[in-house]
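Anyone else keep sequences and structure tokens together like this?

Example one:
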Amino acid sequence: AEALLIFLKALPEPVICYELYQRCLDCSHDSRLCRQVISELPRCHRSVFRYLISSLRELLKYSEHNVSATMIATSFTSLLLWPPPNLMAKQTQQDRQRAINFLYGFLLAGDEE
């Protein structure tokens, strides 16, 4: 697990590409729009995203009460979806919460992707 975290932090660009960052925030309230944004990722990014979400759902399914979807979304958002370098210093708490909401929706969505 630690190797995965190190790998994700070391990527030159997040799994969800910089160019889609703002759209992810803007559509975080609508699961259909969120799925549409993910469908626009390059194939390898999309595959990694789907694999990770599937693995995180499995973690939720088999964990007792010590791991919640909120905790996972909060932890993994900064590894999968971060602002482009020119916006990094300008990220607000509201932006961070919308990014968490974006990921949270996928954790709870089941197999709708």
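And example two:
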Amino acid sequence: RFPFLFVVSLFFGYFMQLVRTQKVLRDQAEHKNRGKAELLNVLSHELKTPLTVITSFSQALKGEMLGRVNAEQSAALGKILQQSDTLLEIMNAILDTASIETSAAEVRKDEVALCELMNELKVDYQGVIDNSQRLLVWEYSASLPKVITDAAKVKIILRNLINNAVKFTEKGEVRVTARHDAEQNRVEFSIKDTGVGIDKTQSGLIFHKFWQADAAKIKDHGGMGLGLYIVKEFCELLGGTVSVKSALGQGSEFKVSLPAR
């Protein structure tokens, strides 16, 4: 009986040590994640503030609010604004990715008017395409219902997909649609383009972190290959899915399906 009790006590002591060790490791991980989240908040503020100033003054100069500018100066300011937008896009992608990996990405469930959300997105993209060979087409009904979801994350999902579509479509159109599937009680979004498309051999990789198409296609577009990774992760956070149908040289169509409740 004594050896049995001795073994039981040893086992119990070992088990408690494991529990204590697990708690210590969990606390350390949570502390590390909080530290990362705090660092990201600081970086976000410290980097975005000067970028906002640069963008604001560039817009003021380009709009001749501070005096006349010649054609060459206006073109240079246009490039500054374009690169500022690219930098902001990269910063947001890094912050979104880090929030996912530090478990700091929280889901807020609020009542969202889908039509208003789409209207806001449409306004954001006014003037983005200034090439007569391309069109940005919006298709959604004014009768789209109110749903319970995280509006900020839905916008991030759609912006990443729209930005990708615009980036890789030189001619034709990018068509953004939204509809409500009443039978399934889901919201369905589609972003379809007539761009370069995706090679079928790479279709299984596109949602991986840092994935990019071959260098010949992206050399003039930049980016870090985080957009589609963020789309997939945020879709899953919201209880939804994302899929793609594409062929090289024949454009792409990304479909996002999210629960309406």
